[in-house]
Hints:
It is a single chain. The protein has 181 residues and is mainly beta. It folds into 2 domains: 6-100; 102-177, no CATH class. It contains 2 helices and 11 strands, in the order H-E-E-E-E-E-E-E-H-E-E-E-E. It has helices spanning 6-12, 106-117, and strands at residues 21-26, 29-38, 43-51, 57-63, 69-76, 79-86, 92-97, 127-133, 141-153, 156-168, 174-177. A 7-stranded antiparallel sheet has the order 1-2-3-4-5-6-7, with helices on one face. The chain has a 4-stranded antiparallel sheet with strand order 8-9-10-11, with no helix packed on it. Strand 2 (29-38) and strand 3 form a beta hairpin. The longest helix has 12 residues, at 106-117.
Amino acid sequence: MKTFNIKKFEENKGNRLMSNQYWYTLENYDVREFSFDDTNTNTKIYQRVITKEFNPFKSYYYYYDNGIISKKVLNFNNSTLTIKEYNRNGELVKETDFDKNFKHSFEQIHDFVLKEKNIDIYDTRQAVALRHDTPHSPLKKYYQIHVLKSSFVDGQWYSQPNYSFLIADETGQIVKSSEKK
């Protein structure tokens, strides 16, 4: 994903009725490519977003107007895990790891929740896991797990909230839950 094929994008954009977007599937992943104008630099920026159904990981790739990667962002639901920034030659110039600000990673929280609750936070039909860093609240760093009740109806998945709980990052333990006993 180090380069963006501008020619292929220009030839294929416009599918799914979006004039500046190109959607396709690659090895069970959904790929959405699009372009936009950067008014600060007066250049065109290209972006690729890669997702997988029911998977909380989402990758964002940004490219310079020459097709070389400028930035890669990895998210877990709405929480940014890493940002890698590149110069116009595609050389890594800066890497920010947001996991290092937390005692527990999403992987560790996944393993804990799977063991304690038999819920897989890597499956968005089962739960949505969010990470918070709130320096001015009593619970400063924590994971918020929203457990879902999902059903397959008429060929589609439908989910609704069931209950939620919080895991303190400091201890890695559940500190609050709305689960009915």
